[in-house]
Amino acid sequence: MYKVAVMGDKDSVEGFKAIGMHAVVANKEDAQLKLKELVELNYAAIFITEELASGIPEVIERYKEEIIPAIILVPGLKGNTGDGMRNIGELVKKATGADILG
Q1: What are the boundaries of each domain within the chain?
Q2: pLDDT digits (tens, 9 = 90+) for 66-80
Q3: Domain 3-96 has CATH 3.40.50.10580
Q4: pTM of the predicted protein model
């Protein structure tokens, strides 16, 4: 069975526990290590707050071509940078061959 996790600051990830997701509290200093641990534990989908992901762009980029894990950027409680929506747009365009989100 595939597992799903969410990574980010404590306040942003706490709510995800209520829906059964594995929540990992991370900061920019340990984000790369914690993401690597989730990948090694075979998590299929890993949601990462945009703010946290902004500190490890090269690591996020490395997994873009992989089927598993799917790295999905989500806004945190501190706000939306737009990176998550751009990331989803790229994935949709790659899957469909067209920019259907505009």
Answers
A1: 3-96
A2: 888 989 898 888 767
A3: yes
A4: 0.81
